[in-house]
Amino acid sequence: MTLRDKLQHPSEYVEEVDYSEHSSKKLIAVPLTIFALALLVLLVTYLLTGLPVGLGFEFTGGVNLQMQTDTPIDQVEEDFSTIEDVPEPDSVQAISGGAIVRYQPLDDDQMSELQSFRDDEYPDASIEMVSPAHGLSLLYQSIGAVLFAFVLMTVVIVAFFRTFVPSLAIIGSATIDMIVPIGIMTLIGIDVTLGTIPAILLLIGYSIDSDILLTRNTLSGRRKKFYENVRNAMRTGVTMTTTSMAAMAVMAISAHFFSIFILRDIGIILFFGLGMDLINTYMMNVAILRWHVLDRRGLR
């Protein structure tokens, strides 16, 4: 089967996978290595900047101007960089039909100068201000929402399976599925914003979906048919995940061309998160479940 066939018909590729030929250590090593690299990226970023990830305007505070204009982006940047007594913009970003100009928090005099310039040169530009204190409060609320969702997911998984090892495997997989995309975000310069937080929350649901399917199949089926049970789960899980990855890739590429950056960022996060979920579920979790179902009972 060619690579193109595998991508077009992922469920057929499942039949070629022979887990009996691979040791559990080798299966677990791949996702744990990727996880370690993601943690290293976050650690290095923290040592260099004081934060493990980049934070968006909503969390750091500042001033945001959004405008519809035909003026070239280079000219917009030059215009806003030459305002007297106002520091240069933190970033100037082109969007479909206009631009977004962001500043670090400004004092009252600087805001007055900026508003006067806006009124004279770009009267249609809207100004949004977020204080650092409000941004920090919003950040804590967002972190709390992610932690609450994760804790609730943990409670549901433990209550459903009532078995320590399979539950721990699912929780561990969900953790890695979130950390790795965050590391990739940091690596390619995507900030954590109010728009990307929902994508991280979605990864919790996506990751446990395929894990639950795999775990339920292997625990409820006959132990002697462990590998067959794994393949049955993979036929559905791999097809479902690769289809979602394809949809996220199309969304990210389309959004990039239309300068809809929030949709592009969400697509990128979910694409890499779902890819990591494939690795975690069908390498790490299969190895853990094989030990739980077969190895510790001496059945393999």
Structural description of this entry:
This protein has 300 residues and is of the alpha+beta class. It has two domains: 217 residues, Multidrug efflux transporter AcrB transmembrane fold; 69 residues, Alpha-Beta Plaits (2-Layer Sandwich), CATH 3.30.70. 69% of the residues lie in helices and 8% in strands. The protein has eleven helices and four strands. 31% of the residues are buried.
Named at the architecture level, the CATH assignment of the largest domain is: Up-down Bundle
Q: Which structural category do the helix and sheet elements fall into?
A: alpha+beta
Helix amount: 55-70%
Query: Secondary-structure element sequence?
Result: HHHHEHEEHEHHHHH
Described by strand count, sense and barrel closure, the largest sheet is:
4 strands, antiparallel
Number of domains: 2
State Rg: 24 Å
Strands, helices and their partners?
Elements: H1 3-8, H2 10-13, H3 24-49, H4 57-60, E1 62-68, H5 73-81, E2 91-95, E3 98-103, H6 108-121, E4 126-130, H7 132-161, H8 164-188, H9 197-220, H10 226-257, H11 261-293
Antiparallel strand pairs: 1-3, 1-4, 2-3
Helix pairs in contact: 3-8, 3-11, 7-8, 7-9, 8-9, 8-11, 9-10, 9-11, 10-11
What features would you highlight for this structure?
alpha+beta, 300 residues, 11 helices, 2 domains, 4 strands, Alpha-Beta Plaits, four-stranded antiparallel sheet
In short, what is this structure?
It is built from eleven helices and four strands; from the N terminus they run ααααβαββαβααααα. The chain has 300 residues and is of the alpha+beta class. It has two domains: 3-55 and 134-297, Up-down Bundle (Multidrug efflux transporter AcrB transmembrane fold); 62-130, 2-Layer Sandwich (Alpha-Beta Plaits), CATH 3.30.70.
